[in-house]
């Protein structure tokens, strides 16, 4: 009987996966399409001097878009738990978020985590690999002014200069608050072997559950958002970049939020599992360590060591979690609590996007008939 039940459950996964795939494709069409068209229609606001209004509207719609992504994992039963430091204090401040990177599921689950806090997603800037520009969500990130970093040693210096320029020309003028960085620069499974070789060669700790973090982007961000360095022209990012704005307009990062993403038994959720929903429901833990800028070293060597120490700390915590099933918490850490999504809000957002899609179709149909009338 048990074998029969298990077989029925496995057979059910096929139609379930096909239905979820079709729904998510349709969801992408009417959400991304509507978002893009609205932003194109409202683009004259930027040219008329109402850039703040344009990006306030864009930020709200961007949050709604990411709520749709959050719904996919919630609907599949992939719950997110939060533990560690209280992050309420940094929600509306300039905050650099650093996190370990294990799989394609990291970003959707971070979106699900942030979705319940209205202050974060409208004013967030993601730093992601340039390949994501050519995915279905690429146009959304381009309009939102996220940063696409180029991979490879030959392009590293140019990428960091582009990041500095983007911070000065976009992140600061648009009044963005949170910035998301994955210092490892790639997924654990792809970087693990090379990272361990690099660690062995340079006498660094051997890491199994994370990889040695890269420091270039962190140094660039801290240099750009450090009024003292800009004022003293003591930044490592180049004079041609620091001249883009005067030191009085530089606003420093106030917090660094270190997030450790911990999957059950060390088995990361990937995007395919979120789309098709074939993995059994599970809980992913987001563990927070919040550091005010005053606790973060300023000189490059000490900052590099500080970042490596955070990743060594992650290694130990993840090792304990994978072995025991319990995440090591100190006396000041909040116990794991679930991130509670709002199904009614999901429904309302779907109706808004569908109604907008219908409106745009009617507008384009009317314009087509009017043009046809003029021509013929």
> What is the distance, rounded to the nearest whole angstrom, between the alpha carbons of the first and last residues?
70 Å
Average predicted local confidence, pLDDT: 88
> Which residues form runs of ≥5 with pLDDT under 50?
230-234
How much beta, percentage-wise? 5-15%
What letter string, H or E per element, gives the SSE order? HHHEEHEHEHEHHHHEHEHEH
Helix/strand-derived category reads alpha/beta
Rg to the nearest angstrom? 22 Å
Major beta sheet, specifics?
A: 8 strands, mixed
Strand order of the largest sheet: 4-3-5-2-6-7-1-8
Query: How many distinct helices?
Result: 13
* Total number of beta strands: 8
Overview of this protein structure:
Helices cover 53% and strands 13% of the residues. It has 13 helices and eight strands. The chain has helices at residues 2-41, 44-47, 51-75, 106-115, 138-144, 153-171, 188-201, 216-224, 227-231, 239-242, 271-276, 300-324, 343-375, and strands spanning 78-84, 95-99, 124-129, 147-149, 178-181, 255-262, 282-292, 334-338. It has an eight-stranded mixed sheet, sandwiched between helices. Helix 3 crosses helix 4. Mean pLDDT is 88; it is low at 230-234.
Attribute tags:
globular; alpha/beta; 376 residues
